[in-house]
Amino acid sequence: MDVSDEAIQALTAVPYFAGVDSALVAMIAGQTIRQEYDTGQVVFLEGEQEVALYVVQQGWLKAVKMSPDGREQVLHFIGPGEVFNAIGVFVESTNPATVIALEPATLWLIPQAIMLKLLDDYPELARVVIQRLASRVQQLIAMVEDLSLRTIEARLARYLIEQSTAEQLQRPRWATQTELANRLGTVPDVLNRALRSLAKDQLIRVERHQIQILNYNGLESKAGFDK
What we know:
Elements (H helix, E strand, L loop, with lengths): L2 H10 L9 H8 L3 E5 L4 E3 L7 E7 L2 E6 L5 E7 L4 E2 L1 H5 L7 E4 L3 E7 H10 L1 H27 L2 H12 L4 E3 L6 H8 L3 H13 L3 E3 L3 E4 L2 H8 L4
Helix pairs in contact: 1-2, 4-5, 6-8, 6-9, 7-8
């Protein structure tokens, strides 16, 4: 597979371009830039002016806010088929977060000028972008609500439900308790106690590479979904 075909394959896997004409996707692919990042490598820093939209072909990354003392709050784990840095491209402002590779990752960059012209020429694409941005805002509002109003056990229960498939959550190699604690706004010791508490209540079973939900309704109740 040549670079152009690889770029087309990566773009067509993204909801942004699901309804876009194949000839147009090929044109966009011809102007994308392929980049690879190693584990722990920074893609860009908060406050930098980014001028490209990023499409993840493979690998996982995290978008984080950093406190002055180095503590992280993970805003979002970003995986294959996802797009990030829309704010930097469409609002034309400095980036509000730092993005770091959690494992080796392959990204495709679409220059800002290309994306802005596409929005002008293809209103249906603009609608998709607006919907995706609105969905992201809703997720961030929900995160603020979680951090402000819910206990760590409730936040953990909610996260497990939202991320699970077939009543189990597969844990990638990078999904350490430290990373999960950073996502839930706590520290590993407190997270570990919350995991043990949910396991003691027979709501979940914690294994090395996965967390199995034993009592889905009970976990929903713990998360506050029934209120």
